[in-house]
Amino acid sequence: MAWGQAGARAIDDLIHRIAGNDPKLTSLTILRQRRFNHDDVASFVRAMATNTNLTELYCSSHPVAPHTASLLAEMLTVSQSMRSLCVGDSSFGDDGVVELARGVAASSLTHLDLSNKGVGQRGAKALVAALAVAPSLEHLQLNSNPLLGDAGLRTLCGIGDSVTDGSNGDGSPAVAIWAGLRTLEVQGCSISAAGIRALAASPNCVRLHVLRLDGNALGPEGGAAVGELLQTASSLKELSLRRSDLGDLGGEALAAALVPSSTSITQTSSSVTDPAAQTRIRLLLDLSECGLGSRSMAALQGAILGGARLALLCLMGNAAVSDADVAALGAALGPGRCKGGSESAVAHLDVSGTAAGPQAVSALSLAEGLCHLSMVGCQLGASGATALASSLEAAGRGSTDCGKNESSPVAPRWAELRELCISGTGLGIEDLKAVFGALAAGGAPKLQSLEVGANPGTREDVFQELLGSLRDARPQLAVYWRSGDDLGTQVQ
């Protein structure tokens, strides 16, 4: 990657390298210290006519007028190498998007970033026309465009409102189908429940793999709208709703939609019946800082008991979520509790910044298939550390408890855990001694990474001895406690 050099005014050196098809210049970022006016863009476009190596251009700190955007559009129509593009500042606006979109339609782009470009409904209309004929364009970023709103999202979905918007002759709305788009980012775009419902009603919804809606004030009604979207978006793999102001009622409505349909698919050639849940895509769901509480957590618990499967569930920053709430969720993840087969209900769980404590730790220790647990900022303190150490000690003792004359099987604790983040959880040196001792004795046998930074005990002199002892006992366990520190050996 080549970066603009501070203090330089012209880009002649970069133009020379582009014209010479420099094989080392595959990604170019033109910083604000560089000049990038209309004439410079014209020189860039001419140089790109013979270039086959430059694949990425980022110049978002420079204003680009519409007539300049048309030059870049011309470049896109002839370049076979350009894959990723981000141009223009907040003044780019709909006029710039309309000009650029003409080139996007005939380009080889796979990623277009128009974040913070002043895009509104007219720009969305130009983009959807391009999306309908650009099979290579898979990823579109429209973050921080508050002028887009619900109307712009509806237009982007290809749903017209009138004849002038492209409706059919009978008055029914025409729908433009995205040729290749699979990842859509519309964070901070003034979208409400109405916009989400428009997306859910669009046939393009089923084509999405990744949808990021962070920073839109969806409100409780938005939770229900997202629930409708989840019922439609059958190919969705990742949904991010961070800081979307769902509230407890909105979270409750959304969680209810996570329960897979009970409809079964019967094989006509045999008597085998496969639950639809077994073919449902495991979703990465980010509900950070959404104002969730006990009602949302109870609904999530019910969804998991009903067969919901999540590759990731992030509940970070929902301060109203209590220790008992997380413990109830952990109980739902326990052995034999979930429908739909033996696979884990949640593989990656983040409850950082909630009130999760000792009850949560004890319950989560029995969660089947839990591979990653993050509790950063949860005030575990001494009681939480005791619960963690106790559960780790139980894991280290094995899977049987011995009575007088027999052994009875018990569920293994932390059986699949690979990563544990307990930074900033108020653990003192005695707490860390207990946790490290249990790990050294074999607790969480598959653990590969442990984060314990920002705990008071890490500042004690004796902490270094604890680290040394743990490393001796578990040489392949990486321990992170301070920036740059990793006291585990590198696992090849």
UniProtKB/TrEMBL annotation:
- One Pfam family it belongs to: LRR_6
Q: Which UniProt keywords apply?
A: GTPase activation, Leucine-rich repeat, Repeat
Primary localization: cytoplasm
Where is this chain's protein located in or outside the cell?
Cytoplasm, Cytoskeleton, Cilium axoneme
Superkingdom of origin organism: Eukaryota
Q: Which GO terms describe its molecular function?
A: GTPase activator activity; small GTPase binding
Q: Which GO terms describe its cellular component?
A: axoneme; cytosol; nucleus; perinuclear region of cytoplasm
What protein is this chain from?
Answer: Uncharacterized protein
Gene Ontology annotations of biological process type: nucleocytoplasmic transport
